[in-house]
């Protein structure tokens, strides 16, 4: 039942505070009640493959298309192998956001999907960020390896044309051949991103710098050779292995500086093809100072580039996740707004001023598909109440009358602390229109609370689970299934700080053989209904367990477990797909929460918890990371099944 808009202060009744709300029926447009499910509906069918476009008649286009497909296949294969890497063991050099930013955005971490892949995926945005940066580094390493193959081969080819002593030429040639071998090995390792490890990076870097000393001495420390070293620094300086990225660059700078000093001072003979003897002392000193400074500046720019890239990707992931979360909230808010515009709160209704039992009806404070809710007052005692009156339509369905009366009888039979209390039900005098008088609640509904803050702290979610489980278990003990649990049907009372369950308008007795619902009609709210409800099958108390699990998922993560642009897409998600892991969305959550909610949201009702109380106790333990070993094994099995490639169940 909906907690409708509040009575304005200017009505004849006492002013009602903003957060005062009552139980009232939702409109059929918002709750998606009695939505016909046509056999073969696209919501419940396996999606068809995209029809291939006609083949291009051009031979060249065919060849280009084939070449592109081959490259895409190779890249996909590499990424699948790369995804299998254990990123939890990878050294984390990503710059962390500030403490306040991390706390504010903790709920927006990127989450892995359990839908289409069976390989291990990154657990949060930092892992995804490291993966993207590593792929970029692999591509650059592949290009630099090719360059360090081409340049030494060119030097060896030109060596016979240079007049140098045989021994010196032999040392030079051996160094270049060694560099070619290392570069070819590195190039081969870059074909699979998972094979390009920090060890490969270190061997590549220190080998290249060592060979550069031989080449610099052979060609001359005052030759253009150091320019190639500076070019290499732009690659090595941006490496993921921060410690050795700096080490390789400093090794190159210090080694070259010593070689410069020794050559410029005459401590060692300058045998280079471009000799220092051809320049004066001032030129040599300038060269000794300027070249290392340029190298240091190159290293600095390389590290700044890496750091700024890290920061940019961090902010990107935070913004993307926040946008995803806000999109879900906006969708919910739009639905709430559309419903609020239909309520007509504060206006006089057809029965304003009439009596419903001992209560005198006041202005309308809400309405739904079947009923209109009036603020009511007992003149004798001053007791407040919310009275729901069946809406009179020209095309009135007899089953609406029966369902309305049944709701009153069922709700009045439940004397539970966590279920809205019904005072009376009957007919309005002289009009023979049925009504239900129930307690007027003061507080706030869960839907409104979640619009103010997208998620609740873990201890509040545990409290919510405990309170709702009491109400549900009490209803289930007498054979009543609610069938429409959702944030708008959950209310927190200010006085008692107790969560209450509202709206038993579409509830069902498990012992009932008949139904007031038409054939092939969908009962419930798509985002929170169970798979068996989505398929139009028989439901029992375990459908409410699924809905309670959906509520816990929503309040814990800030996102509904299932969402879509329309009812058909949401129903399909509920029936056949699995939600993201909560610990992937909120990284501070223990993985036990994943396990418990995977049991509560199991597609097969036989795999769910047997009672709402069992779910609440398990959730309480999961939040503390103290889940029973048996439930952990059960949850792990369901999570493994959810990670398998998508199949219709």
**Which spans of ≥5 residues are poorly predicted at pLDDT below 50?**
1-57, 79-123, 513-520, 645-649
> How is the main sheet built?
6 strands, antiparallel
Estimated helix fraction: 40-55%
Strand content: 5-15%
Number of helices: 19
Verbal overview:
The chain contains 19 helices and 13 strands. The longest helix is centred in the middle third of the chain and has 60 residues, at 281-340. Helices cover 50% and strands 8% of the residues. The chain has helices spanning 28-31, 59-83, 99-104, 125-158, 166-189, 198-219, 225-236, 242-264, 281-340, 398-412, 446-452, 458-477, 531-534, 541-557, 567-576, 582-585, 591-600, 612-623, 629-642; strands spanning 35-36, 355-356, 359-367, 371-377, 384-390, 422-427, 434-438, 443-445, 480-481, 490-493, 499-501, 508-509, 521-522. The protein has three domains: 1-27 and 344-441, Phosphorylase Kinase, domain 1 (2-Layer Sandwich), CATH 3.30.200.20; 125-318, no CATH class; 444-649, Transferase(Phosphotransferase), domain 1, CATH 1.10.510.10. Strands 2-3-4-5-7-6 form a six-stranded antiparallel beta sheet, with helices on one face. A three-stranded antiparallel beta sheet has the order 8-10-11. The protein has a two-stranded antiparallel ribbon with strand order 1-13. The two termini are 32 Å apart. A hairpin with a 2-residue loop joins strand 2 and strand 3. The model is unreliable at 1-57, 79-123, 513-520 and 645-649 (pLDDT under 50). It is rod-shaped and about 120 Å long. The chain is of the alpha+beta class and 649 residues long.
């Amino acid at each position: 039942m909906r907690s409708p808009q509040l009575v304005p202060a200017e009505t004849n009744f006492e002013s009602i505070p903003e957060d005062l709300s009552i139980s009232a029926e939702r409109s059929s447009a918002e709750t998606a009640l009695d939505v016909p499910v046509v056999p073969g509906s696209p919501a419940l069918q396996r999606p068809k493959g995209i029809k291939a476009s006609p083949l291009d008649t051009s031979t060249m286009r065919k060849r280009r298309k084939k070449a592109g497909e081959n490259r895409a296949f190779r890249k996909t294969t590499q990424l699948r192998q790369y995804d299998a890497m254990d990123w939890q063991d990878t050294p984390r050099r990503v710059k962390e956001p500030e403490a306040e930013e991390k706390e504010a955005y903790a709920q927006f971490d990127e989450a892995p999907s359990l839908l289409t892949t069976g390989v291990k995926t990154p657990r949060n945005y930092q892992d995804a960020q490291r993966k993207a940066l590593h792929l970029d580094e692999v591509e650059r390493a592949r290009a630099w390896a090719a360059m360090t193959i081409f340049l030494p081969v060119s030097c060896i080819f030109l060596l016979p044309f240079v007049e140098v002593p045989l021994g010196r030429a032999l040392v030079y040639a051996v160094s270049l051949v060694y560099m070619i071998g290392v570069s070819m090995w590195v190039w081969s390792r870059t074909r699979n991103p998972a094979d390009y490890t920090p060890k490969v990076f270190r061997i590549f870097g220190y080998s290249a710098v060592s060979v550069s000393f031989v080449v610099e001495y052979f060609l001359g420390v005052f030759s253009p050779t150091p320019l190639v070293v500076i070019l290499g620094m732009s690659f090595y300086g941006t490496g993921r292995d921060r410690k050795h990225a700096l080490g390789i660059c400093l090794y190159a700078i210090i080694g070259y500086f010593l070689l410069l000093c020794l050559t410029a001072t005459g401590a060692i003979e300058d045998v280079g093809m471009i000799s220092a003897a051809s320049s004066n002392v001032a030129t040599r000193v300038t060269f000794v100072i300027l070249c290392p400074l340029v190298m240091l500046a190159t290293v600095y720019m390389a590290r700044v580039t890496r750091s700024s890239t890290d920061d940019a990707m961090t902010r990107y992931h935070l913004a993307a996740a926040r946008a995803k979360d806000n999109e879900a909230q906006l969708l919910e808010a739009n639905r709430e707004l559309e419903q609020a515009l239909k309520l007509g709160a504060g206006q006089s209704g057809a029965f304003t001023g009439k009596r419903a039992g001992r209560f005198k009806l006041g202005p309308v404070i809400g309405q739904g598909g079947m009923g209109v809710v009036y603020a009511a007052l007992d003149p004798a005692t001053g007791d407040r109440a919310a009275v729901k009156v069946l809406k009179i339509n020209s095309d009135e369905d007899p089953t609406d009358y029966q369902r309305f009366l049944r709701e009153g009888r069922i709700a009045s039979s439940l004397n539970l602390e966590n279920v809205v209390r019904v005072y009376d039900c009957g007919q309005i005098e002289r009009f023979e229109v049925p009504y239900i008088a129930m307690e007027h609640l003061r507080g706030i509904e869960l839907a409104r609370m979640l619009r103010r803050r997208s998620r609740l702290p873990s201890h509040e979610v545990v409290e919510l689970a405990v309170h709702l489980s009491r109400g549900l278990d009490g209803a289930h003990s007498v054979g009543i299934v609610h069938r429409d649990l959702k944030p708008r049907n959950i209310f927190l009372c200010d006085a008692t700080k107790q969560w209450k369950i509202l709206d038993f308008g579409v509830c069902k007795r498990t012992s009932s053989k008949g139904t007031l619902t038409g054939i092939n009609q969908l009962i419930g709210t798509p985002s929170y209904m169970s798979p068996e409800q989505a398929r139009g099958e028989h439901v029992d108390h375990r459908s409410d367990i699924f809905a309670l699990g959906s509520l816990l998922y929503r309040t814990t993560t800030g996102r509904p477990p299932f969402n879509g642009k329309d009812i058909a897409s949401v129903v399909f998600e509920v029936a056949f797909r699995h939600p993201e892991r909560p610990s992937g969305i909120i990284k501070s959550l223990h993985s036990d929460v994943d396990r418990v909610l995977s049991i509560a949201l199991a597609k097969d009702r036989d795999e769910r918890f047997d009672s709402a109380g069992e779910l609440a106790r398990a959730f309480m333990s999961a939040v503390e990371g103290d889940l029973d070993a048996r439930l952990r094994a059960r949850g792990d099995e369901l999570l493994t099944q959810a990670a398998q490639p998508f199949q219709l169940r």
